[in-house]
Amino acid sequence: MKSSFQFRERGFALLEVLIAVVVLATGLLALTALQGALTRASADSKARSQVAAYAASEMDRIRRDGIVADKSATAAGTDDISLAAKAGGLSGLIQTACDITYSADTSGNFTTADTDCARNPPASGAVAYFFRNTLTLSWTDATGGSRALSVSSDISPLALTSNNVLVNRPPPGALGLRPIVRRENPVTEGMIPIATGGEDSEQTAATNPKPKLLGGDDGSYVSDTRFDVLTYSSDAPTDFARFNKRIETAVVGCTCQNSTAGFTGNGPGAALRAFNLAQGYRPTYWSGTAYRTPEIATEAVSTSPADVPQSALCDICCRDHKDPTGVTGPKFSPWPGQTAAHYRVDGAGAFVVAAANETYLEACRVIRVDGVFRVSADPKIQDNALIATQVYPSTDTAGSQLAGVLNNNAATSPALSTDGKSGYVDYVYGAVARLFFDATAVAGTGNAVDYAALQASSLNVPSYVPILPTADRRWLHSRIVMTDYLESDAQQRVVTASQDCEAPASDADKAHCVLPYIPMATINTTEIATWSPRASTDADARPANLASLAAKYFNFARTVIRRFNSALALFDSINPTDASDPAVDEQLFVQLAATEPTQSVWLNTPSPNPSTARFFGNPLNPMRGYAQTSAPLSFKLSWNFPSGNPASPVSGSATGDDPTASVTNSGICSPNTSANNTTNPHTCNAPGTTGVEISLAGYNRIQYSDVKDDCAGGNAKTSKPTCVIYTFTGATVDQPNGTVAAASATVVDPAKTGKVGEIIRFTLPSLSNAVANPSTVTASFSRTTTDATPSCDASNKTVWTIPCQ
């Protein structure tokens, strides 16, 4: 009997097979599409890489050509076959370029109203501007889709270089914002911050001036002197500061040519540089908040001669720094007494007004404004002040040889003392208050300020520095207060600030009210000023406890600096008035000697030599100003008698009265124990390097010759006296760094002038302290002879009247 259940046979139904085939086909089709997409993406990536490489090279070319080059963009919508070939064979490649002009407004922010993609410089050439060049490359991909790539760069005419490129600025909407710059506290040894009184502990300080030498640190000529005037806020308790303002400054001395023929331009961008050198500008000046972009000048210009090795900044210094007759507005030389003429130095060392095409001397301050160096109106050094350096060690008072006076070791360290720095800050506040707050004519253009009184109240401590009599060194530090001439807008800003000040109770309060609006810098000039010693006179004031000491116990260390640009540039005076009325300060020294010094000048205060000194360059061995007493210095003294005279010094005298030389009050040169002192040259010892006084004696004499005695008659002979008189004509000092002339001689006893017993004295301006190559002093004379007058006495003997006895 069969069951009612039936078993299925195993296998795939036709329907199932059909479904599997459909699924497999769908997957294969998807893989085929993916493979095509990958192929297209690879081709597109390769195309974009080729376009990007071409765009980069094209932008490099645009930057290299500079601001004056025409952009070579293909018109939009045009297929350029050569362009396609450059970009790797792409077809349909189109290049377009767009230049948007950004111009600076009065606040220094850059904005644009440009819409036509053309290079449109501002109508006023004095306005800072730049072009933002956007290069766009477009093409069609393999699927017919549109592709594009853009690159941009900013190109500016602000610098006279072949590569006028600026880093891209932020988008236009953020142009009004200022970047926040933080760095380590900028104050180093020699800088003294001045608090401006702001709420965020704002301070101002000038960095130590750094002279740049042509040829690097081993160069022999100063190119220019650079420093920054910084305004910053301290981020206590960290040692970082936020920089609010930086005025980048260079002071340069130049030789200029009174025409435009000295500079022709060469190399890439020569046309632009030639144009800029032919287009002068009026000065940049302080507006009350910033230095203004200068206006275009209309007068003829001068140039920096092409064959004179000097700073590149001399191009714009020579080009711009002039105030022709009738010019209006701010001037380069605005201060009373400044001259607008340009001078050269003739063969006799005198200043002569330079004529057309002649070279002349010039000095400028150059400030970076809107990214480019501009020649500014001349600043003026208002005062020069010495500041106390440290006592080290503070407890050592040994060494004084002067009864009742201790060696307190003042100024035995080159570092500034705490009291010296705080006293200087008070002094600056007093100067600012009197120049810009109290003055009725706030411009600072001649306001009378009693700087001596300010120094006496804040800085002149100690009143004198004791110094040991031999090889003792004391350190000195000199600073200047430098301000700009304020034009009317800056004057009004300062007046408003002083009027808005709430009941200032002190000089510091007054200064804090106006400091943010005045262009003032306090600069360390220790290694730039000229140093020299000065002998004390009876007219100089002395400390009460030392009033009984003779004047020779006292010397002054003197620091001198000219008032205008040439001083900071370490350049010669540029006109007859440049060296007049320098800023001077002195420090009194007293020698702790048991006996009165033999020389009136025994202090040595050397000035740094720009060709060898590394200004503030090595913190382990800093150059600083110093004064010291020195051990006796050896030098040679040679007599230069005219030809025809007996051997010099004159020898053969039976009385041993040959010429003698001595350092006044310090002993005979080359003392000789024999009857005749015939040494030539003499060897002398001086107590110092400057102000050494020389005494010369024994050079005038009587010579005898046998002649017929007319009074006695017959063949009798008599000795005829003849006066041989030597007149001093001058002395020179030959030393390793050149030859200098000594002062004219004076006769010690006028009654002995032209006599055998005449003694003269003259002063040497300087002596080299080089041991291997000491100084040689040459004293020169002219020679005259006068015969004695004979007469007969009652015994028929000849009596001679000798005029030189």
TrEMBL record:
Q: Which domain of life is it from?
A: Bacteria
Give the span(s) annotated as Disordered. 195-218
Q: Which residues cross the membrane?
A: 12-34
Does Transmembrane show up as a keyword for this record?
Answer: yes
UniProt keyword annotation of Membrane present? yes
**Protein name as it appears in the record:** Type IV pilus modification protein PilV
Q: Which UniProt keywords apply?
A: Membrane, Transmembrane, Transmembrane helix
Q: Which NCBIfam families match?
A: type_IV_pilV
Organism of origin is Cognatiluteimonas weifangensis
